[in-house]
Each structure stands twice: as structure tokens, then as C-alpha cells.
């Protein structure tokens, strides 16, 4: 098998898919989180400010979902087919919530009536929670392993996705994004809303720390295959250690009111959580709970080497482009939110 | 109903609904580029007002387009898992290219287009408008390339057999420039220009009829009419080329489009008609030899009929394909007539004195929308029973793990959400149009009142776009 810098192309693409999911979680994570805590703000002015803090960027953030999905489709079509058809109901709920959310943001500001705006606020908050929870739920199920047969076809029941572990992962994801979103908002606001957010940020951080502790203990005790790699390679233990430090730094920066640092630390936390997932799963992408030989791996589920080369070329040209104009957009809208005639 | 029929209905429904919006974004984007370009060139505030007004409408359209577009990418995996496995190697690279080269570009610069007016220089803002429009046009390229590959597959070979059979790419550029890509991209682009420019024509005509914002409306009308006039004529030639490609690579589809059963010379072209699929006959008004001429430039050339294709490999709904195809042709012809006559009267300076013409233009917004939908129905129904032409049948492309009950659940969900969404869209679009282009300025004024009103409790706001 041909390699590039010591890694085969399928593994490279595994890293690219992982990086796009990370990028998605970090970027859409903060605007989903901001949505999930939206109803904590009572005043119309505060809600508008919170919406406009994500206004110019949320759409661009969501692009990473499309890129990640496309990357999975192109690089590992068997995984794409297996996972998406297995979780039919959660994905449909996810899609409808995603539509509702986009529409709530766009439609809310279009009419001045109070009832109109309140209704869209509830839709926006509810759908942000649902999107986040559904993502966590699906991730949790993938971590456990799926009942797939040798053709990658799901053999489980329609509602098997509702199990305690997956729900725990869902709640933890929600807590993580809420913390991440609150930190983003506190950076973008001032005056009364800022003061209110400083309290929300603290509470969300506590909520997340409790969730992640419970989830970690549960995983280590009851789901041995998810800590197998780290247990057998001592040097990999560094990854969770850095993650704990990153979480510690979130709380430290928050208490010192250095929110930019807190934001980068929570972004680091998100990516390290996914790095741990990637380490524990590799070389598998989807574990078959029926028979280990039916696992979908980086090698038996990937596209042809030719396609992987093409995809890596596309990524090598595209990612710097996307990164440059994303930076430009964030730079343009840096600083605290100012409402004007074109705002939501 | 079977999972196959339900999944097909769901895909057709979600994609048809989605396809109302992207062509409007592309077309309106082009109109906005023209308007903002004029503003930069002349410094005339009228053009700035125009750009800002249409930006607000653009935002509404774009938002729904993106939200409903993500659905399709997921549906490939949820409903069509076997298809996804079969084409992932080929189709996936086009889809990835769309995400990273096109979608990221338009969504990235959208923030600046919508919210950047007071944050960046006018030139930078213009750049953002151009980038968003280019991004949406690039999107069309990759999506149409992916679809064209399903129609006229190229640059691949099949590996494995039975359940494991799948297409693997052998030549990326041959896949991208498969035989129908270029003609179909142009066809879709021009269809989008028509959708966008007719929306502007409709809004402007409505203002003129109601004697509101006269200068604004006349100016917008002229810009949009130029685009609509050029596009509708261009579409005549591009559409003709597309039909020739279909005749060459998908003869059964062309035969269904014309209800042409016997391979005959000369082959007639129907202006309208009815296909009796059971007796394999077509009734209607036709031009003798018309199909032969349009396909091969010769009134006596033989054109392959449906009977040359085994029954199992023919489109199931011949009359359906025939009707949507002829609807598209009729609407295209109407658009050519309408824009040409209007352009003629505009030159003579009598156009805006004819209220009945303006009334037609108010409703003309439906022409390109219906034509675009009809065109896609022709392309997709005509391709049946294949999902990848000649290679993979639609009935074999389904997810094996998905039950009818699940698809019914999601289908009902989408129908309910989309009906609500469409009602809201029409309501908000209507409100925006009735509020008019000066709304932004009025808002600034009313926001001063709002600050005063805040002391007396919440009154609701009029700000926002």
C-alpha cells in the first residue's frame, strides 16, 4: 500500500475526516451552545445581541458539517452508508432540528411582534439543544459499536439508539457546547448581558466538569474497549492529561476573566476529546457488536487509492482557502457586538 | 407503499422544495453584482438602496436554501445506502469539492455581504457579493457534475460483483467532464439567471403598478430585463444542445420525452399531446420531421424509439416525462416572447405605460420556477429505472436497514415542516416587498422612537432585516 510521510492514504483521510469533525464541533459548537442557553436571557436587547454575536459566522460554521459529511461519503462510503441508515430516526430528527434552527435565526428578526419573536426564541433554543444532543447520541452509539453484519447492514432495532451510555454522551456534548457557547458570548458582549454571562459561564463549566467526570468513570469501568489503546500505550496517556489541563485552564481563565484564553482552552478540550475517540477506535471506524471480523476499518471501508489521492489534493488546495477567508470574516467582525440597521 | 416508492417520493419532495431556492440565490446574486457594480461605478445612491433591498430578500432565500440543502447529503446515506456504497468513490469527490470549494466560499462571504456594510470598504463589500455569487455558481457546477455522472457515467470502472460491486474512479477529469456535464451546468446556470431576474422583474412590476418607488422600480426592472432577455434566448440554444446530448447518450429518455415509440424517419416533434403508454401511442399536434431535425439537423434522419429498449429498462412514466418536458419547452418559449416584446417596448419607451404587461410580469415569477422544476423532473424521471444510467437500478440502491414505517415518519415530518416553511417564506417575502426599499431608512428613524419607548416597557421592535 502506498504511503505518504509514513502513513497510508486511508489513514491520512481518517485524519482529515477527524479534523473536519473537530472543526465542526469547535465552530458550530459555540453557536449551537449559544443557542442552547438562549432562553437564559430575558430582555429582547440581550437576545438580539446574543443572536448577532453568531449572526455573521454561524452559516460558515455549518459548512464544516457538509465538508465532514462529504469527506466521510467520499473517503469511507461503507461507513457513511452503514451509520446513516442505522440511525435513520435520530438523523431525521437532527435534520429537521437543523432546518428549524436556521429558520428561527433568519425569521425571528423579520417581524416586530413580541409573540413572533418569543416563539422563534423557543424554536431556536429547543432546536439547538436537539441538534447537539442528537449528535452526541449518535457518537455515543458509534463508540459502543453497532450490530452490523458482514455487509455493513444494521441488524438492530429501530429505537436501540436510546441507551444509557449514548444518552450520557449526548448530555455531555450538550454541556460541553453550552460552556463553549457561553464563553464565546461573554467575549462578544458588554454591560448587563456580560455580567449575566459571567455567571452563566461558571455554571456551565461546573455542569460540564460533572458530566465529563461521570462519563469518564463510566467509560473506564464499563466500556473497556474505549480505553484499551491508552492503557496499552503509556505515552498516549499524555492526551487525557493534556485534556484535563485544558479543562483546568478553562476554569482558571474564567476566574481571571481572560475569556479568549478560556475559549481556546475549551476548543482544545473539544478537539482532544475527539482525538481520544480517534485513538481508541483506530484502525476501526465502526465496531460491529456482532462479530469483530465485521468491523468497518480504515482499510476495508475506504475508497480506492486513486480517489483518496484526489481527495487529499482537494483538501490540500481547499483547506487553506477556507481557513483564510474564515479568518478574514472573523477578523472583520472582531470585538463586541454592535447592533445596527442590518442586524438581526 | 414500498420503501422504494416512499424513499423516491421523499427524495423528490425534499429536492424539489430545495430547488426553489438555489436558482433564486444564483440569479439574484448576479442581479445584485450588477447593481452594486453600478453603484461603485456611478456612486448613485439609488443603486446602493437597490443592492441593500435585494440583499435582504437574498438573505431570506439563502437561509432556506442552505437549511434544506443539507438534507440531501444526509439522505444519500440514510435512504440510499447501497447507492452511497456504489458511487461513493466517484460521486463523493464531487460532493467534497462542492463543500470545500463552493459552499465554504459562499457561506464564508455571506456574513460580510449581510452584515458588513458598515464594517468594510465598499470595494471589499462588492468583493463579498461577487464571491457569494461565484460560490453559488461553483456549487451548481459540482452538484450538476455529480448528477451528470449519474446520467452519463465516465472515468470509472466497476470492481467487485453482487453486493460488493461499486464504481471506482479511473480518471477524475473524465468524471468531471463527462459527456453531459458542460451542457447541463450551462442549462442550470441560465435557468437560475432566469429565476433571479424574473423575481426582480415581478417585484419591480408590482411597485410600478402600485405607483410606489417609481425610480427604484424602473431602474431595477431594466437591469433585470437585460439579464432575463439574454438568458431566455441563450437558454434556447443551450437547451437544444442538452437535448442532443440526451439523444446521443440516453436515447430511451429522449424517446420518452417525445413519446416516440417506433424508430422512425422522419420523427415528429409534438407541440403538445398525450401518451397512451398502454397502447404505445402518442396523440397530439406535431411538426413532421421536427425531432429528426432538432436531433440531427436533418428532417429525414431516423430517431430511436422506445421499442428499441426492453420494457424493463424504459422509464415507467412515459406520459409524465412527456408532459413535464413539454411544459418546460412551453414555458421557455413564453419567457422568450415576454422578454423580447418587453425589451422592444422598453426601447420605444412605452413599456411602463402598459399596466396589463406589468400585471403579466408580476405573475411571471412562476415561469422560470415551474420550468426549472419541470426540467429536473424530465431529467430524473427520464433516467428511470436507473439511478446510475445503465449500471445501477433505483430499486437496488435502497438502504436495506430502513423500514417503510421509518420513511413514512420522516416523510410526514418533512411535508409538515416544508409546508410551514413555504407559507412563512411567502408571508415574509410579501411583507418585505410591501415594506419597500426605504424600510431600512425608516427603521433608523423609528429606532430613535424605540429608545424612548423602552422607558415605558417592552413594545417590540421594528429593527432587524
UniProtKB/TrEMBL annotation, chain A:
Any one GO cellular component localisation term in the record: cytochrome complex
GO function terms (MF aspect): electron transfer activity; metal ion binding; oxidoreductase activity, acting on diphenols and related substances as donors, oxygen as acceptor
UniProt keyword Cytoplasm, yes or no: no
Keywords (A to Z) from UniProt: Cell membrane, Electron transport, Heme, Iron, Membrane, Metal-binding, Transmembrane, Transmembrane helix, Transport
Keyword check for Transmembrane helix: yes
Bilayer topology: Multi-pass membrane protein
Any GO BP annotation: aerobic electron transport chain
InterPro entries attached to this UniProt entry: Cyt-d_oxidase_su2 (IPR003317)
Cellular localisation: Cell membrane
Residues spanning the membrane: 12-41, 79-100, 121-146, 166-187, 199-221, 233-250, 262-282, 310-333
Family, per entry: Belongs to the cytochrome ubiquinol oxidase subunit 2 family.
Name under which the protein is recorded: Cytochrome bd-I ubiquinol oxidase subunit 2 apoprotein
TrEMBL record, chain B:
UniProt cross-references to Pfam families, sorted A to Z: Cyt_bd_oxida_I
Subcellular location: Cell inner membrane
UniProt keyword annotations, A-Z: Cell inner membrane, Cell membrane, Electron transport, Heme, Iron, Membrane, Metal-binding, Transmembrane, Transmembrane helix, Transport
Gene Ontology CC terms: cytochrome complex; plasma membrane
UniProt GO BP: aerobic electron transport chain
Name of the featured protein: Cytochrome bd-I ubiquinol oxidase subunit 1 apoprotein
Residue spans crossing the bilayer: 20-41, 53-71, 91-114, 126-145, 186-209, 221-238, 324-346, 358-379, 407-429
Amino acid at each position: 500500500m502506498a504511503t505518504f510521510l509514513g502513513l497510508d492514504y486511508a489513514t491520512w483521510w481518517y485524519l482529515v475526516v477527524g479534523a473536519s469533525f473537530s472543526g465542526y464541533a469547535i465552530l458550530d459548537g459555540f453557536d449551537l451552545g449559544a443557542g442552547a442557553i438562549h432562553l437564559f436571557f430575558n430582555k429582547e436587547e440581550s437576545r438580539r445581541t446574543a443572536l448577532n454575536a453568531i449572526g455573521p459566522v454561524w452559516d460558515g460554521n455549518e459548512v464544516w458539517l457538509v465538508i465532514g459529511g462529504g469527506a466521510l461519503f467520499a473517503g469511507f462510503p461503507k461507513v457513511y452508508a452503514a451509520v446513516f441508515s442505522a440511525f435513520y430516526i435520530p438523523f431525521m430528527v437532527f435534520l429537521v432540528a437543523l432546518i428549524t434552527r436556521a429558520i428561527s435565526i433568519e425569521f425571528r428578526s423579520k417581524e416586530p411582534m413580541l409573540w413572533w419573536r418569543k416563539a422563534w426564541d423557543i424554536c431556536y433554543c429547543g432546536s439547538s439543544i436537539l441538534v447537539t444532543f442528537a449528535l452526541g447520541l449518535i457518537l455515543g452509539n458509534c463508540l459502543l459499536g453497532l450490530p452490523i453484519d458482514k455487509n455493513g447492514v444494521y441488524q438492530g432495532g429501530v429505537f436501540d439508539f436510546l441507551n444509557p451510555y449514548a444518552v450520557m454522551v449526548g448530555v455531555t456534548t450538550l454541556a460541553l457546547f453550552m460552556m463553549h457557547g457561553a464563553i464565546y458570548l461573554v467575549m462578544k458582549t458588554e454591560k448587563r448581558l456580560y455580567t449575566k454571562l459571567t455567571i452563566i459561564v461558571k455554571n456551565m463549566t461546573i455542569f460540564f466538569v460533572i458530566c465529563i467526570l461521570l462519563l469518564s468513570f463510566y467509560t473506564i469501568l464499563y466500556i473497556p474497549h474505549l480505553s484499551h489503546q491508552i492503557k496499552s500505550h503509556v505515552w498516549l496517556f499524555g492526551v487525557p492529561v493534556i485534556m484535563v489541563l485544558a479543562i483546568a485552564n478553562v476554569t482558571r481563565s474564567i476566574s481571571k476573566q481572560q475569556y479568549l484564553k478560556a475559549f481556546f482552552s475549551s476548543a482544545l478540550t473539544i478537539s482532544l476529546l475527539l482525538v481520544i475517540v480517534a485513538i481508541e477506535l483506530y484502525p476501526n471506524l465502526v465496531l460491529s457488536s456482532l462479530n469483530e471480523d465485521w468491523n468497518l476499518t480504515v482499510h476495508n471501508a475506504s475508497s480506492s487509492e486513486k480517489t483518496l489521492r484526489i481527495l487529499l489534493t482537494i483538501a490540500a488546495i481547499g483547506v487553506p482557502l477556507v481557513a483564510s477567508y474564515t479568518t478574514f470574516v472573523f477578523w472583520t467582525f472582531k470585538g463586541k457586538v454592535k447592533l445596527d440597521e442590518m442586524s438581526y | 407503499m414500498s420503501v422504494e416508492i416512499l424513499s423516491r417520493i421523499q427524495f423528490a419532495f425534499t429536492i424539489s422544495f430545495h430547488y426553489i431556492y438555489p436558482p433564486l440565490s444564483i440569479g439574484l446574486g448576479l442581479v445584485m453584482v450588477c447593481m452594486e457594480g453600478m453603484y461603485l461605478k456611478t456612486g448613485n445612491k439609488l443603486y446602493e438602496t437597490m443592492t441593500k433591498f435585494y440583499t435582504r430578500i437574498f438573505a431570506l432565500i439563502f437561509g432556506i436554501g442552505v437549511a434544506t440543502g443539507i438534507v440531501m447529503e444526509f439522505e444519500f446515506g440514510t435512504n440510499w445506502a447501497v447507492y452511497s456504497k456504489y458511487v461513493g468513490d466517484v460521486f463523493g469527490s464531487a460532493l467534497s469539492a462542492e463543500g470545500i470549494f463552493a459552499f465554504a466560499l459562499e457561506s464564508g462571504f455571506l456574513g460580510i455581504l449581510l452584515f458588513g456594510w458598515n464594517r468594510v470598504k465598499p470595494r471589499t463589500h462588492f468583493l463579498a457579493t461577487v464571491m457569494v455569487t461565484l460560490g453559488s455558481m461553483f456549487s451548481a457546477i459540482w452538484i450538476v457534475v455529480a448528477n451528470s455522472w449519474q446520467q452519463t457515467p465516465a472515468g470509472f470502472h466497476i470492481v467487485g460483483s453482487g453486493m460488493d460491486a461499486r464504481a471506482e474512479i479511473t480518471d477524475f477529469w473524465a468524471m468531471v467532464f463527462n459527456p453531459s456535464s458542460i451542457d447541463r451546468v450551462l442549462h442550470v446556470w441560465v435557468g437560475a439567471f432566469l429565476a433571479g431576474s424574473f423575481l426582480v422583474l415581478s417585484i419591480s412590476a408590482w411597485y410600478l403598478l402600485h405607483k410606489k418607488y417609481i425610480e427604484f422600480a424602473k431602474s431595477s426592472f431594466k437591469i433585470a430585463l437585460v439579464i432575463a432577455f439574454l438568458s431566455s434566448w441563450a437558454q434556447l440554444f443551450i437547451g437544444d444542445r442538452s437535448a442532443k446530448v440526451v439523444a446521443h447518450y440516453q436515447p430511451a429518455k429522449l424517446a420518452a420525452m417525445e413519446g416516440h415509440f417506433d424508430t422512425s424517419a422522419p420523427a415528429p416533434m409534438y407541440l403538445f399531446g398525450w401518451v397512451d403508454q398502454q397502447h404505445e401511442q402518442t396523440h397530439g399536434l406535431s411538426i413532421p420531421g421536427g425531432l429528426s431535425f432538432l436531433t440531427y439537423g436533418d428532417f429525414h434522419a431516423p430517431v430511436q424509439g422506445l421499442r428499441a429498449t426492453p420494457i424493463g429498462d424504459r422509464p415507467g412514466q412515459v406520459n409524465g416525462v412527456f408532459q413535464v418536458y413539454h411544459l418546460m419547452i412551453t414555458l421557455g418559449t413564453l419567457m422568450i416572447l415576454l422578454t423580447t416584446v418587453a425589451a422592444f417596448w422598453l426601447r420605444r419607451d412605452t413599456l411602463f405605460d402598459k399596466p396589463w404587461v406589468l400585471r403579466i410580469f408580476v405573475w411571471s415569477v412562476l415561469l422560470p420556477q415551474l420550468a426549472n422544476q419541470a426540467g429536473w423532473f424530465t431529467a430524473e424521471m427520464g433516467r428511470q429505472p436507473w439511478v446510475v444510467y445503465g449500471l445501477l437500478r433505483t430499486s437496488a440502491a435502497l438502504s436495506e436497514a430502513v423500514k417503510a414505517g421509518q420513511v413514512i415518519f420522516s416523510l410526514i415530518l418533512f411535508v409538515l415542516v416544508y409546508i410551514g416553511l413555504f407559507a412563512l417564506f411567502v408571508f415574509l417575502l410579501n411583507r418585505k416587498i410591501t415594506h419597500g426599499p426605504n424600510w431600512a431608512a425608516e427603521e433608523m428613524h423609528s429606532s430613535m422612537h424605540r429608545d424612548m419607548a423602552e422607558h415605558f416597557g417592552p413594545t417590540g421592535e421594528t429593527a432587524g432585516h
